[in-house]
Design brief:
The chain contains 14 helices and 14 strands. By secondary structure, the chain is α+β, with helices and mostly antiparallel strands. The strands form five sheets. It has a four-stranded antiparallel beta sheet. α2 crosses α12, α3 packs across α10 and α9 crosses α11.
Amino acid sequence: MKIKYIFIIPFYIACTESEPNVEALAVVNGVTITKAQLVSRLELTPVLKSNAKTDLVEEALNIIIDEIVVSQWAIKKRLDKKENYNDHISFTRRQALIRELFYIEIRNQSIPIKSEIESAFQKSQQQITIEILFTQEQYISDEWSNLINTGKTFKEIEEVYDSSLFVQESVVSFHWGDSNIPSKIQTISYETEVGGMSNVFKVPWGYGILSVRSRVKDIFINSSVHRQNRQEISKLIQARKEDILASMYTARLLENINVEQIGRGFKEISEYLESRTYLNANEGTADRYVKDIELQSGDKYDLSLMVVKSPDFEWDGNNILTLLRQYNYPVTSDGIESINKSLMPFLKGAVRDYYLEKRAEQLGLESNVRVRDDIEMWSRYYLYMLGVSEMIMADSKRDAQKMLREEINKLRSKANIEIDSEMVQTIRITGIPMIVLWNNDFGKNLAVPPLLSFQN
């Protein structure tokens, strides 16, 4: 079975061009913590278990210092040789390279021109109300096309399917750029006249047709709001163009690559996953994600069978399990058909990422500063978490929180720590720190590691 790769990359690379900031806030055992690094961590994730009595900037700095001393201790304990750590780093490296690839290859091409911004701005001043019909059944969408060709109106089509269990109807009002409305539906809505009807269109979850009920111009918008809206619209246009260009880039990259899905190996891994999720359900386990402990191979299943084959790699069942762990991919327990349905797009996405990573390597992007910083930051965080777990397991009889506080403070007392207190005082964080995520096909991941303290 040949896997066809025509799909959209549904994530926005949320990074901006800036001059490198090398202002050193602190140096811990030779490792520099820059002002830019701390601000990035603090702005993009909250401080978990934050102590309200402690200054937020100082607390974040202390957490990063803890990360450094514990991660260095973890390396001395050879925790960086553990397989699960290497899995994490492999995944982090892949995603960092892909983000950098799109940044280099796509970002400059996606900058909107003045006419695009003005057109979108005018649309954003209008609230549009549409009525829409959805179905997951292709035969129904074919029937809609036939009815449209015979001159039927939207209302007449709506009446035909009024009692159908396979057609959903909804009415929605929105402005251009509303993040709750898919961009394809927005585009079709603004291209359709009031009272008119669209042709049948395809979306990832099925098929639709829509009719525009009204388009009302907003008023009482002052000049400062105009300027702000144009800036926001420019960013939104760029994000949408990046999605489109990333999809086209990927399609070209994979166009002449023959990737095969091997039926017997696919069947074996699917049945194995079904047996594990079924077992978890019987044990009362609600967690849908694949964990290491769940993936011990049994004699009943041959996970050495090939599942995916390309000119550049071959993945067997064990490789697929590793990928599922890396992506933290949810495996449903709704039967073999459900598992097959979710596993196929996962394999497509994993193959896509393999070739995007390979392309980034060919361009030598691993040496770029953003990639190095990303990998270093996440590596330190993973070692920090491994180190904390090791400390708890080594002294399980003691109170974990008290023990961790004592052990981490011991490491800090032995470390060479230099802090530029004056520079720390210059950092001002306004507003509430937000959790920022970047998306891939399989869910959401934190843009930077969380600031997690074990000292409270």
